[in-house]
Amino acid sequence: VGFANYREWRPKPASCEIGIGIGERALWSKGLGRDALMALRRHLVDDLGAHRISLHVLAFNDRAIASYKACGFEVEGVEREGVRSDDGSYYDDVVMAYVAGREAPTFDPRPVTLAGRYVRLEPLRLEHAPELFDALRDEETWRWVADGPPRAVGDMTRYIRRALDLQIRGEHLPWITRRAADGRALGTTRFGAIDRPNRSVEIGWTMLGPEGRRTAANTEAKYLQLRHAFEDLGALRVWLKTDALNERSQRAIERIGGTLEATIRNERIVRDGRVRDARYYSFIDREWPEKKAHLESLLKGR
Length: 302
Prior knowledge:
By secondary structure, this protein is of the alpha+beta class. The protein contains seven helices and 13 strands. Strand 9 and strand 10 (200-208) form a beta hairpin.
């Protein structure tokens, strides 16, 4: 069904490179690759005394990258267009490694599905581009976003690719937002500015198409993200920011319990060349029980 091997064993640094793959598509996402990788890692570390194990994976293979991270491998860099395919196309190559004895960070957001009563947040993937394009093709959705509205599925593919590049580097964690009742794509959201040492994360890049607006979708998505951050990951602080002119976003954040911290002047240059001010809001761990109860009361009233 696949293969797992190691090569280029170097005795002095006790290091090698590995390769692994599951050939049958029907067996992907079944945990077979992860099991094989862990078995190979144990053999190399426990039996051969390996200190460092490295591997290469194409950047578009986000499932494999997530699986390798779950096995203790960390991204060390991206070789831009480092691999050329038979048809002449170039692809980014991600370099990852496991170092024996190195402790994983205690706060380490990773791709995960968050399910609620009204929405389900699934890890964003390139194959979601067509349905996300259909959900978010109206221009109003992109009014406050740095990117312009997509004109074709290819534009959405590139938007997702940039989000996944940030995920590879450990900076962002994007989701597709689905309606729980029928699985229909409503939009997208993500964690950004992931600060592992300080256990802090931003919620942002949230977009909902017409079918998701004025519903429970945004409220429950924020609830699921906040609950995951504080209760599963142990966050100390979760923050959000929005354009000072975007009053609808500010009211929405205040409605779910966000505390206004400051207005950052001249925070960035936006798409039309305007220099914007930004409002920064936060939730913190010691206030989460109260904020959680407030959010749950909002959702009960839907």
